[in-house]
Amino acid sequence: MNLTVDQAQGRAPVTILRLDGDLDAATYEQVIDRARELYSSGSRNIVLDLRAVSYMGSSGLVALHAVALLFEGEQVPDLDSGWEAHHAIGRSIQSGKALKHTRLLVVEDVSASVRRVLARTGLDRLIPFETEEAAVVGGF
Amino acid sequence: MATPLVLSLEAATLADLGRIRRFVLEGATTLGADPIAADDLVIAVDEAATNVIRYGYRDQPGPIRVELSAGDGELRMRLVDEAPPFDPTAARPAPNFDLDIGERPFGGMGIHLMHTAADRLVHTARGAAGNDLTFFKVLKQQERSVSG
User: How far is B109 from chain A (nearest CA, A)?
Assistant: First the structure.
């Protein structure tokens, strides 16, 4: 998993974290760690660019959710506590609460594996997404 | 049914997930799965193998064997391990996923993805230490979705 960072400007400053490679149980913590560093150094709005993610499973969903919580200023579930991090996603989806500080950038193809995983789990309703960079940055 | 394609790892860790997924993607495609069926089996094996390594073997290296075979328009993917018995079919999510995921006793997203990715899932405990999990998937998912 390669991670790169760009800064952009919507109505507010936006940090774009670009993910390249497989987002699985072996790599998802790298994404959370990098997002923590960005939040600590002052970033308050984040775009996770998933267009170059070749594979994403449930560990990837845990990472997206953890980053979203982090940027909402909320507590991130303990990743070592078994299923808790997964259940926390379900509770967030159920709550219907809008997330203001995280957006996803995804490929246009709705049949792409990453998009199908987002749709099947409902995470695409929890974290807003766009397929164009200008649109996702302009959303902030 | 022809001899299955086999990937046998003596000491699998999370670092092997990519290799396991590639084996399933290439093997399923070779056996005639269309891209959607192959992608779904990749999701299923990733979630199942992740569970075995993280929770079954508690992040210690352990044996995992994956077998792929096809027959009667259906692909079978068998995952064999030596971890304590765990039956993911007992954790079948309710159809209304939105309403109950927060309350399920175990499983969460991974189990949900495993179930939605496979057409059928059969688990057999292999005595006190070991699981035999077989996923069934119709090879041509695109034709099926077109015909309803």
Answer: 6
Q: Cα angle vertex A53, ends B119, B116, to 5°?
A: 15
Q: How much is the ipTM here? A: 0.88
CATH class for the region spanning B5-147: alpha beta
B106 touches chain A (CB under 8 A): yes
Q: How many CA atoms lie within 13 A of A36 on its CB side?
A: 10
Give the chain A residue whose CA is nearest to the CA of B21: A55
Instruction: Give the pair of three-digit tokens for residue B104.
Output: 């399920």
Domain ranges in chain A are 2-138
CATH of domain A2-138: 3.30.750.24
Nearest to B66 by CA among B130, B118, B111, B8: B8
Tokens linked to B130? 């070991």
> In the A/B pair of chains, how many CB contacts fall below 8 A?
87
Which of B109, B113, B114, B145 to mutate against chain A (most A CBs within 10 Å)? Answer: B109
Asked if B21 and A22 come within 8 Å (Cβ–Cβ), the reply is yes
Per-residue pLDDT of chain A (140 residues; tens, 9 = 90+): 999 999 999 999 999 999 999 999 999 999 999 999 999 999 999 999 999 999 999 999 999 999 999 999 988 877 766 667 777 777 777 777 778 999 999 999 998 999 999 998 888 888 999 999 999 999 99
CA atoms of B24 and B37, how far apart (whole Å): 11
CB contact under 8 A, B102 and A94: yes
